[in-house]
Amino acid sequence: MRCKQSVVVSMGKIVIMDNGRKRLSGKCGIKGCDAKLSKIIA
Questions:
Q1: Residue 19 in domain
Q2: Do 2 and 35 contact (CB within 8 A), yes or no?
Q3: Among 15, 23, 32, 36, which residue has the least CB neighbours within 10 Å?
Q4: Is pLDDT at 8 greater than 60 in this prediction?
């Protein structure tokens, strides 16, 4: 199942990539959804 909604990310981690940009990764916070989420935030 892929999550296509605006959701709260649980267990989120911010990782700084080699190019200096920040990526937020974690799991979907909706009950019953186990999708992994990853988004560049800066």
A1: yes
A2: yes
A3: 32
A4: yes
